[in-house]
């Protein structure tokens, strides 16, 4: 297995949302070369890709968008179908209907192939187990397992790095502020399941979580 790790460059899995944008600015502080990688899976709100493109353009970050339309065919859910309404409350059993089966597995696998071709070993993703909506592919155990699998699959020493894994949304806002990216993340990212940029619709699970963390962070500064 290739042993030498490249700690001067990183690939960031970048959706244009709050968490991945925080990770992008986190990476820009730590690496000489950062490449943002987004995925077009014909998601209902293509605006998130527009947000991703704008942020990368404004901050001179190399950005690639990969075609993952097959995922849309395989995993119909409320983020890919206009006729499926987003669950506003967590279900008593199972995952929310906003969960896209296999999404992080596929995104990180393709990011790894992309990174290896460029001699990059570090892959940054904004998943978090501390403040998440019941998505199994945001858990630390999944990331560690996939990291091992990708290293074995390609005989290459990848490091999947998760800066937000143990941060709640309040702490994520604090990190954004520390990175000097607070206003960008508050006003230019799309986290809302109903496709509203910035503060969002206010009533989908993602908006509720984002606002709760923001309110807590702003209160802690007073």
Automatic annotation (TrEMBL):
Its EC number is 6.3.4.20. ATP binds at residues 14-24. One of its GO terms (biological process) is tRNA queuosine(34) biosynthetic process. Binds 1 zinc ion per subunit. It catalyses: 7-carboxy-7-carbaguanine + NH4(+) + 2 ATP = 7-cyano-7-carbaguanine + 2 AMP + 2 diphosphate + 2 H(+). Zn(2+) binds at residues 192, 201, 204, 207. Pathway: Purine metabolism; 7-cyano-7-deazaguanine biosynthesis. GO terms for molecular function: ATP binding; ligase activity, forming carbon-nitrogen bonds; zinc ion binding. It comes from the Bacteria. Catalyzes the ATP-dependent conversion of 7-carboxy-7-deazaguanine (CDG) to 7-cyano-7-deazaguanine (preQ(0)). Homodimer. This is 7-cyano-7-deazaguanine synthase. It comes from Anaerobutyricum hallii.
């Amino acid at each position: 297995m290739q042993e030498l790790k490249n700690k001067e460059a990183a690939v960031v899995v970048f959706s244009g949302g709050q968490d991945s944008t925080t990770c992008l600015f986190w990476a820009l502080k730590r690496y000489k070369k950062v490449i943002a990688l987004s995925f077009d899976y014909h998601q209902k709100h293509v605006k998130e890709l527009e947000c991703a493109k704008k942020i990368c353009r404004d901050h001179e970050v190399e950005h690639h968008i990969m075609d993952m339309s097959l995922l849309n065919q395989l995993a119909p859910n409320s983020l890919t179908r206009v006729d499926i309404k987003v669950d506003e409350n967590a279900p008593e059993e199972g995952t929310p209907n906003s969960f896209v089966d296999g999404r992080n597995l596929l995104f990180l696998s393709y990011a790894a192939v992309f990174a290896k071709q460029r001699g990059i070993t570090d892959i940054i993703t904004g998943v978090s187990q501390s403040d998440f909506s019941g998505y199994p592919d945001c858990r630390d155990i999944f990331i560690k397992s996939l990291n091992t699998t990708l290293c074995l699959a390609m005989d290459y020493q990848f490091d999947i790095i998760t800066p937000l894994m143990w941060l709640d949304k309040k702490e994520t806002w604090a990190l954004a502020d520390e990175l000097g990216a607070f206003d960008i993340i508050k006003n230019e990212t799309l986290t809302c399941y109903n496709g509203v940029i910035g503060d969002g619709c206010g009533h989908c699970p993602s908006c509720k979580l984002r606002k709760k963390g923001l309110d807590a962070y702003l209160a802690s500064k007073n």
